[in-house]
Design a protein that fits this description.
Helix content of chain A: over 70%
Largest sheet of chain B: 2 strands, antiparallel
Radius of gyration of chain A: 15 Å
Structural class of chain A: mainly alpha
Strand content of chain B: under 5%
Order of helices and strands of chain A: HHH
Oligomer: heterodimer
Number of strands of chain B: 2
Strand content of chain A: under 5%
CATH topology of chain B: Amino acid/polyamine transporter I
Order of helices and strands of chain B: HEHHHHHHHHHHHEHHHHHHHHHHHHHH
Helix content of chain B: over 70%
Number of domains of chain A: 1
Distance between the termini of chain A: 38 Å
Number of domains of chain B: 1
Chain lengths: 58, 685
């Protein structure tokens, strides 16, 4: 049961990492900010700008 | 006792790997079950991971968990962040997994299942996994530097510039060839075209939802997006059966190519949050989900391989692409065995997120082994089809004949019986008008996957699963096309900025439009020539892409070897030199044959000469088309030649550096970040 719980926990953590939700939480924590639509947009613009300058794998 | 049991277990895994490999290699005449391939691959990866990769990690790299990684030292909450190793493994795997390992093995199956399977397994264990692991390690020890930066610092300025130019050229060919796979999968298919067309407004809806309605709820909107895509697949069947709507979504190859080119331009110029980002999120989740579904399906259904171990096309007369096993099997399957593009990912985000040095072992070597396993699954999906069906779907009309009757007669004469009626029934079952001449690998892979999925849950849903698989392939091909165009635009702006500064500004609209158009036109040209090619386009473009990708791997291995030579002299340079020597041999042989082979189906120049002779003899059916084909063949020869020159440059530059270090004429300065003791606690990761 513990193993299943751990697997589910890891899966959720992976999905949150892939969806940038974890990165956003880290960003808020690192800068002592609270979530707001404007803050998300600022974070998103910076994050996506750096992501979409790197080549994609084939 | 525990140590003894461990050794016993590894001995059993090694014996299972050897036994399964011998089983698939020596079996002739009887159908082989796919489980043999699964066991051979999985056990070989495990042995390679446990012994070879561990040896490299411990003896060669000197991985040390006490050494703080850049994720800890430079932690900033953005790029640099210590991440759980399993989460980072998934993140890295999602980044390296593309359409390459799915399409390449399907095309190489024309030689039979054996050559491709052996190359995928052995190439990954000794080449691809090693490349990814060493580059990840090198980047991690250099604060997450990119391949280009490492090439410049470790080899020299010339090496760095060559690496940049090689990447840009490869991007153009990559985008053209995967767009061609996309076009060939959707031409004449109203169901597939409608579904994919729907993903665009769905992505825009997701973008607006995420930006204005529910900011930050990416998982929530991805789930909604996936539900809408499934509805689009179901709606596609209704569209395909509608007499008024079906013609609207039934597009020819050239029409689809123009649509993709226009799409690529707008996707590159529009704000990222509106289209690219939501599509990227959706594509990542669908990609991971489908890969694991396919693994589950194969284990559940355990299909028999219908294609033989070796076909008659090992002699180089294959209908899908021309050329003998050596070198063409090894460039057709790139990403499943070794892919240069992975070195860009291994020196990108991942090294900045590794919490402990030894995590690079599982992430660098392990994720590539998993990618290789995806290639094995694609091989199984293709080889599980009836050989006659496989060749009918993948062969171009220019080779087998333009009518279903002519095509089936040709394919049957090769010893792979198939009838036009069988193909018609199959097409009807999957909701298509025809499955003939669907070159590119995507439709036959979708057919194989649909059979596996339908075998798990019932054949009645074959049409849905076929289009689900097509949607999955097309979705992440488009994601690469749009993101790749944008990346190409940035690279071009970076280069042009040195000529005239305003052109380098990524927010200056005239520059954005000009450079977007230039990149789109560059890959769009190759795409269009592929669509018009009477031999299906794949015959010329896929080998070009394979050569380019493997040459990029050669660049990465040059950098890796230079670093190993600086660390240990000649002692361990064989680890990267062995795959490097193989890749250089394969790609230079293939490149040389593609340019100079006297066979018109292989050599670009011979193809141009044959067409020229036809014009002069007055036997060319269409004069302007023949002239265009001559120009294209010569252009392909030039591009291939440029690749070879670029890699010869970086190889010669690297050998100069190795020679200097090994003879003591040059200082072997290892450019790693200094050692800092880790303070990261286990519970923090």
């Amino acid at each position: 049961m513990r193993l299943i719980r751990r697997a589910v926990h890891l899966l959720v953590a992976l999905m949150r990492e892939l969806s940038d939700e974890s990165a956003y939480q880290r960003h808020l924590a690192a800068h002592g900010l609270r979530h707001s639509p404007e803050e998300w947009r600022r974070f998103c613009d910076a994050r996506l700008l750096s992501r979409f300058v790197r080549p994609r794998c084939c | 006792m525990r140590k003894f049991l461990g050794r016993l277990l590894w001995a059993a895994v090694s014996v299972a790997a050897a036994y399964a490999l011998a089983g698939i290699a020596l079996n002739r005449g009887e159908p082989v079950n796919s489980v043999w391939l699964v066991v051979a691959a999985a056990c070989t990866y495990l042995v390679g991971f446990r012994f070879y990769a561990r040896f490299i990690g411990a003896r060669v790299m000197g991985l040390n968990n006490d050494r703080a990684t850049p994720a800890e030292r430079l932690r900033n909450g953005h790029d640099y962040e210590p991440t759980n190793k399993w989460v980072l493994f998934g993140h890295h795997f999602a980044a390296i997994a593309g359409p390459g390992p799915l399409v390449g093995p399907v095309l190489a199956a024309q030689f039979g299942y054996l050559p491709g399977t052996l190359w995928i397994i052995i190439g990954a264990v000794l080449g691809g996994c090693v490349q990814d692991f060493v580059i990840l390690f090198a980047s991690m020890r250099r604060d997450g530097k990119t391949l280009g930066q490492m090439a410049r610092e470790e080899i020299g300025r010339l090496g760095g510039l060559t690496a940049l130019l090689t990447v840009m050229l490869i991007m153009v060919i990559l985008l053209a060839v995967i767009a061609l796979v996309f076009v060939n999968a959707l031409k004449g298919s109203p169901w597939g075209t409608f579904t994919i067309a729907c993903t665009m407004p769905i992505a825009v809806f997701m973008g607006i939802y995420l930006r204005y309605w529910r900011p930050g709820k990416v998982l929530e909107v991805s789930l909604i997006g996936f539900a809408l895509v499934v509805l689009a697949i179901l709606g596609g069947q209704w569209v395909a059966e509608s007499p008024s709507l079906a013609p609207v979504f039934t597009l020819s190859g050239p029409a689809l190519a123009i649509a993709v080119i226009i799409y690529g331009f707008f996707a590159s110029a529009l704000p990222v949050w509106l289209l690219l980002a939501p599509r990227d999120y959706l594509s990542t989740f669908v990609k991971l989900g489908v890969v694991f579904m396919l693994a589950g399906g194969i284990l559940l259904v355990r299909p028999q391989l219908q294609l033989p171990a070796l076909t008659r096309f090992t002699d180089g007369t294959g209908p899908i692409f021309a050329g003998t096993i050596f070198p063409f099997c090894f460039i057709t399957i790139a990403c499943g065995a070794i892919s240069g593009f992975h070195s860009l990912i291994s020196s990108g985000t991942t090294p900045k997120m590794i919490a402990r040095e030894w995590h690079a072992w599982g992430i660098g070597y392990g994720a590539m082994a998993l990618e290789s396993f995806v290639a094995i699954m694609a091989m199984i999906a293709a080889c599980a089809l009836q050989p006659g069906v496989y060749f009918a779907v993948n062969s171009p009309a220019g080779v087998v004949g333009v009518t279903p009757e002519a095509a089936t007669a040709t394919i049957t004469s090769w010893g792979f019986p198939v009838t036009a009626a069988e193909m018609e029934t199959l097409a009807r079952e999957v909701g298509e008008h025809t499955l003939f001449f669907r070159t590119g690998g995507a439709p036959s892979l979708a057919l194989g996957m649909a059979h596996i999925f339908a075998g798990s849950v019932g054949r009645r849903l074959l049409g849905f699963w076929y289009h689900f698989a097509i949607m999955f392939e097309a979705l992440f091909i488009l994601t690469i096309v749009d993101a790749g165009t944008r990346v190409g635009r940035f690279m071009l702006q970076d280069l042009l900025g040195h000529v005239w500064k305003p052109l380098g500004r990524t927010s200056w609209m005239p520059s954005v439009i000009t450079t977007s158009a230039a990149i789109v036109l560059a890959w769009g040209y190759f795409l269009y020539q592929g669509v018009l090619d009477p031999l299906g386009g794949i015959n010329s473009l896929w080998p070009l892409f394979g050569i380019a990708n493997q040459l990029l791997a050669a660049v990465a291995l040059c950098v890796a070897t230079t670093i190993l030579v600086k660390m240990h002299g000649a002692r361990y340079m064989w680890i990267t030199c062995l795959p490097l020597a193989w890749l250089v041999t394969v790609t230079f042989t293939a490149g040389f044959q593609k340019i100079f082979s006297p066979a018109p189906r292989i050599g670009f120049l011979a193809q141009a000469a044959e067409l020229q002779a036809a014009i002069q003899a007055g036997t060319a059916a269409d004069l302007s088309e023949a002239r265009a084909l001559i120009f294209n063949a010569r252009l392909d020869a030039v591009v291939c030649g440029i690749f070879l020159v670029l890699v010869t440059t970086i190889l010669a530059d690297s050998i100069r550096v190795w020679y200097g270090i090994l003879t003591g004429k040059r200082e072997a300065r290892v450019l790693e970040a200094p050692f800092v003791l880790t303070r990261l606690k286990a519970e923090e990761i």
